[in-house]
Specification:
Layout: H1 3-23, H2 27-37, H3 43-54, H4 60-68, H5 74-95, H6 100-124
Length: about 130
């Protein structure tokens, strides 16, 4: 690993950590696009690497802080995490049946829709 790559990875991880603690985002919204557009990863490699990053409890410190302040619904988190695990496995199997260009297109559409929704909600709830 080059020093440049190491610095890029630290910056991506640091930004993802800050935004994860602030907004609860990280993998699909920040890490995967950063790996694609900054580190030059192919889409599927960026997705796989992002998933590998999420595998360990990377947000444990933030979760503990939110839990200590009474802002974690543990039963909901367990159910959602279980559904996420099953759905992510099924969708990963499906993704490899798609053309890489289709995956990039779907990912771009997802980002645009989520960005538009977030902007509209921000404007409506002043």
């Amino acid at each position: 690993m080059s020093m440049y790559s190491l610095v890029i990875y630290i910056l991506i991880g640091g930004c993802a950590g800050v935004l994860s603690g602030l907004f609860g985002i990280g993998g699909g919204v920040l890490i995967a696009p950063s790996l694609i557009y900054i580190a030059g990863y192919p889409h599927l490699t960026a997705i796989g690497t992002s998933l590998a990053i999420l595998l360990p409890p990377i947000s444990i410190a933030a979760v503990v802080e939110y839990y200590n302040k009474g802002h974690v619904n543990v039963p909901a988190a367990i159910v959602i995490a279980s559904a996420l695990m099953i759905a992510s496995w099924m969708s990963a199997r499906f993704t490899f049946r798609l053309n890489g260009a289709v995956v990039r297109l779907l990912f771009g559409i997802f980002l645009v829709v989520m960005g538009g929704y977030t902007i509209i909600q921000g404007l409506l709830k002043k």
